[in-house]
Every structure is written in C-alpha cells, then in structure tokens.
Amino acid sequence: MTIPIPYSVLDLAMVTEGNTPTDAFRNSVSLAQHTEQLGYRRYWLAEHHNMEGVASTATVVLMAHLANQTKTLRIGSGGIMLPNHAPLVVAEQFGTLATLHPHRIDLGLGRAPGTDQLTANALRRDMKAVMDFEGNVKQVQQFLSKSNQKSAVRAIPGEGLDIPIWILGSSVESAYIAASLGLPYVFASHFAPAQLFEAAAIYREHFTPSAQLDKPYFMPCVNVIAADTTYDARKLATSFKKLFLGILTGKRQKMQPPVDPDSGYIDPLEEAALQQMIKFSFVGDAEKIAGELEIFLRRVGADEIMITTPVYHHQDRLRSYEIAASVLQSMTV
C-alpha cells in the first residue's frame, strides 16, 4: 500500500541584506501560515549562533511564537543542539511548549554546537557532559518519561508528555545513535550530503524498536528552489550559492539579492567545490523539480522529506513552497 509522502519545512529565520531580524521573524510567521495551508506537516527551526544572516538562535522562543500563530502544523526544533543546553532545561522548555500546544511539538536533538569553535566555547557547559550526546539524549528522555515521577529531579511541565524526540545528523555516527535508541532520524543532506546513503543504510540495518517507534523512520532534508521557469529558479539560487560560498570561505554575510545566473558571478573552481556541499539541491520549474525529487526519494527511501528554501525575496520563497507542495502531493512512499 502506498501513501502520499509527508513533506515538511526547515526554517533558519534568515536575515537578508537590507533587512533585520524583525523582518525575518515576520517572514517566518507568514511562511508558517502559508505552508500550513499547503499541507506541510512540520515546521522546524534550526539553532545557529554568531551568524549575521541567521536569526534562529533562541529556537524555543521562536517556536512558541510560531505555534501561537498556527493551528495544525507540528512545530519543532531542527534542532536543539545538546552541547549548548542542559537536558533538564530542554525537558522543561519543551514540556512547557507541549503543555501550551498539545500534540503539536517535535523535539529534534543535534550533537554539534551549531556555530564556530569560539562561540561554542562561550555557549558550552561542562565538557565531559557535552561530549556524551547519547547520554544527554537519554537524560532528556528520562525527564520526559512517566517513570521519572519518583525521581529527586523532575521536569514540570514535561514529565509524562507525548513529545516525539528525533535525532538529527550529518554523519554516520548519528545514524548509529538514532538506531540504537529507536528514534526517528533526520539527515542534514541540504549541506552535508557525503554520507547520506551510508547513514540511511546504517540506521535501517541497526534499528532497535523502542517505546516511541517500532520501525525506522527516515527524513532527509534538501534544498528546493522552485519557480515558474527554470531560469527564474536558477536566478533565485544565486543568492543561495553566494551564501554557502561565504560559509566555505569564512566570509559569512547576510543573504544577497539574486543576479543573472549566466553572468559569471561565481568562479568555476568555487562552483565545483560548492557542489560538493549542496549536491542535494533541486532547482527548477515544477516539471524539473518533480523528476529529480522522484528519483532522489526512490534512491534514499525516505519516509518523509523536509525542505529548506534559501532565497532572497519572501514572495519568491512562498511561491517556491507552493510549487514544491504541488509536486510532492502526487508522490508516495
């Protein structure tokens, strides 16, 4: 039996050139409401720090704001970076969110700091605790469990609530952890494509059923930039490419306006290096996107797909998600 593949959103609350975090947050609300109407299942917010062009630093605060502005979307973290947070605080914060918005909150947990080393040092707790990602995940699980009621330390609210926990990853190490804990697994193939297929295979092969999940559930995240014509999509993608090139070269900045894609705006050698990072990016009109996504989903065997659309103009972003939804509605798992 085949069913339509669920499709979801990853948002970084990007701050574009000439705009402010206030504009980014306003756009996030607009996008969340728009994608809710288009049938997207989840709307997750990433945690990043010390990046002028990314405003999703206080992920939980922004999640609360978006949950208040929507009705059916599952609002989640993509993810909460555990090196930066004590497990009890995570359990309390998400317990509060889930109490305010029952059965609508997802807790995605990551093992990286989501920033550069200097900023990571400013954020981090005790280094011994930081390095034990699997142990920290288990602590979060314990604080959220009904069995924690007799513990000396309790997460209230949080204890006993139905808050799905997801493991985020960009390498095979996270695949082993997600499999051993029996948790759903999200892979960041939108910026770290190299180990996608190996990680997916490891996760499925080593999966151990848990109280939360009885069989593997795998969701890759990819870049999708869709427009009414492929040329228009390629033009929109110039902003995205310049943004990622800045990450590669250490020259980070706010997202820049798009330019003519055939203007030689990027050096061919830089383009080749960049493609290694953004391999799973789908750029084009509806027909092109449909063909490429169908092949990708068949290869990776996704149970759900999460897409992020880093473009400069908000209206172009809204339109891209419209086209993506129209394409994904006809695809099955």
List the helices and strands and how they pair.
Elements: E1 7-11, H1 21-37, E2 42-45, H2 59-69, E3 74-77, E4 80-81, H3 87-100, E5 105-110, H4 117-123, H5 127-131, H6 133-144, E6 165-169, H7 172-181, E7 185-187, H8 196-206, E8 218-226, H9 230-249, H10 268-277, E9 281-284, H11 286-300, E10 305-308, H12 314-328
Helix pairs in contact: 1-2, 1-12, 3-6, 7-8, 9-10, 11-12
Protein name: Luciferase-like monooxygenase
Domain Luciferase-like: 18-303
Pfam families: Bac_luciferase (PF00296)
Task: Give a quick rundown of the structure.
The chain is α/β, with parallel strands linked by helices and 333 residues long. The protein has one domain: Luciferase-like domain (TIM Barrel, Alpha-Beta Barrel), CATH 3.20.20. 44% of the residues lie in helices and 14% in strands.
Overview of the molecule:
With 333 residues, this protein is an alpha/beta fold. It has one domain (7-229, 281-328): Luciferase-like domain (TIM Barrel, Alpha-Beta Barrel). It is 44% helix and 14% strand. It has helices at residues 21-37, 59-69, 87-100, 117-123, 127-131, 133-144, 172-181, 196-206, 230-249, 268-277, 286-300, 314-328, and strands at 7-11, 42-45, 74-77, 80-81, 105-110, 165-169, 185-187, 218-226, 281-284, 305-308. The chain has an 8-stranded parallel beta barrel, surrounded by 9 helices. The mean pLDDT is 93.
